[in-house]
């Protein structure tokens, strides 16, 4: 199991390709960042352990190096005092510490190389994470803009301009019909009123003629 598996996945695959499969790009982006944060925590733990191993070997090889120097000084001091046997034993112990020093130094160099490699990878992960955070802001803004555009497009597609135009046209025809009916009704009403007046005129004209005739008869009678 690789510590940097998700990092490789993120750098090898395009973010946009991953978003194509996501129902909610914003949620997926947030999940990617959470995954990367978890990987960084895991990587930091691994780096810390490797640094601890590095320091342990460093301490051991330094201690062995100090013992090599110390036994050499002690062997010299024993010779100065004429104790060749003690000097020999000191040099034999020095040889053992020398072997330990060389082994611990070799292990330290390996541990330091691994620790440096992990440090570099951790730095790479953090840099990539920061880039992804910045890219997230851009992608979230683009996703929101795309959602808004989609909603507008859907609203426009369902707006029914043609249907509305046809409906308005039908209503306009209906209004014109109502206006025509109202006008026809007004004309009929006016015609009936005129006929009534003319008829009444004819009626009143007959009475007046009779009245005039009676008046003429009366005047003629008075003259007789």
From TrEMBL:
Query: What domain of life is recorded for the organism?
Result: Bacteria
Q: What stretch or stretches form a coiled coil here?
A: 26-135
Q: Which UniProt keywords apply?
A: Coiled coil
Q: Which InterPro entries match?
A: PspA_VIPP1 (IPR007157)
The positions making up the signal sequence are none
Q: Name one Pfam family in it.
A: PspA_IM30
Looking up PANTHER family in the UniProt record yields: MEMBRANE-ASSOCIATED PROTEIN VIPP1, CHLOROPLASTIC, PHAGE SHOCK PROTEIN A
Q: Can you tell me which family this protein belongs to? A: Belongs to the PspA/Vipp/IM30 family.
Protein name in UniProt:
Phage-shock protein
């Amino acid at each position: 199991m690789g510590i940097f598996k998700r990092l490789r996945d993120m750098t090898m695959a395009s973010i946009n390709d991953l978003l194509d499969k996501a129902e909610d790009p914003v949620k997926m982006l947030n999940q990617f960042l959470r995954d990367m944060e978890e990987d960084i925590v895991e990587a930091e733990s691994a780096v810390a352990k490797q640094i601890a191993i590095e320091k342990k070997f460093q301490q051991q090889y330094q201690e062995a190096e100090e013992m090599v120097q110390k036994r050499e000084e002690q062997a010299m001091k024993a010779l100065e005092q004429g104790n060749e046997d003690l000097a020999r034993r000191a040099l034999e112990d020095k040889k053992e510490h020398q072997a330990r020093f060389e082994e611990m130094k070799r292990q330290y160099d390996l541990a330091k190389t691994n620790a440096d490699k992990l440090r570099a990878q951790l730095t790479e992960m953090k840099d990539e994470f920061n880039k992804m955070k910045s890219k997230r802001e851009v992608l979230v803004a683009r996703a929101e803009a795309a959602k808004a555009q989609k909603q507008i497009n859907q609203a426009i597609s369902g707006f029914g301009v043609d249907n509305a135009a046809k409906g308005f046209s039908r209503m306009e025809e209906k209004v014109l019909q109502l206006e025509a009916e109202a006008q026809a009704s007004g004309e009929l009403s006016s015609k009936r009123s005129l006929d009534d007046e003319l008829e009444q005129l004819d009626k009143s004209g007959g009475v007046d003629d009779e009245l005039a005739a009676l008046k003429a008869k009366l005047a003629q009678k008075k003259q007789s």
